[in-house]
Amino acid sequence: DSFFEEDACQLQEMRHELERANKNCRILQYRLRKAERKRLRYAQTGEIDGELLRSMEQDLKVAKDVSVRLHHELENVEEKRTVTEDENEKLRQQLIEVEIAKQALQNELEKMKEQSLKRRGSKDLPKSEKKSQQTPTEEDNEDLKCQLQFVKEEAALMRKKMAKIDKEKDRFEHELQKYRSFYGDLDSPLPKGEAG
């Protein structure tokens, strides 16, 4: 349980990081477009502004750094999403095993109940012998009931964890798609800047 809580915290933290990177990305895109417009204007008039040139070079350097950082963040998100999918698949397998075990225990419990009823119905056994035969069955019944309850609780917990992981996976896929589009947008003006 603590693993999943820690995992959820890490996912939340990573989403905040990605949101901040997204904001920086939009600011840089705006600055790059503005600088590109100025560069074109000065290119048309033939005037060269040294300060503008330095500003553009600085913007391009920052944009490249952010581009590299975003690329690494995207790789991390992709890796985390893959791990989440693997974990989800393991939980699905465990849930199947738990459901099978639950069914087996229910069948065993029914069998025990039937045996118990048959033994209670037998009248030719002495009372003490009947008691000695019934006690283990009742104990077995109680034990099976406890096991069945435990299996049911475990199955419910696994379903809850799977739902949580599915939700996180969907969020990650959404974030990943969003940041891929932003990363592509940020990357595309760079060759123009380098060419200028």
TrEMBL record:
Localisation per UniProt entry: Membrane
Pfam families, A to Z: SOGA
Keywords from the named record: Coiled coil, Membrane, Phosphoprotein
Entry annotated with the keyword Nucleotide-binding: no
PANTHER family assigned: GIRDIN, PROTEIN SOGA3
Example of a GO cellular component annotation carried by this entry: extracellular space
GO BP, sorted A to Z: regulation of autophagy
Name of the protein this chain belongs to: SOGA family member 3
Organism: Hypotaenidia okinawae
InterPro entries: MTCL1-3 (IPR049885), SOGA_CC (IPR027881)
Region annotation Disordered: where it falls in the sequence: 111-145
SOGA coiled-coil domain boundaries: 140-195
Biased composition (Basic and acidic residues): 111-132
Coiled coil regions in record: 4-38
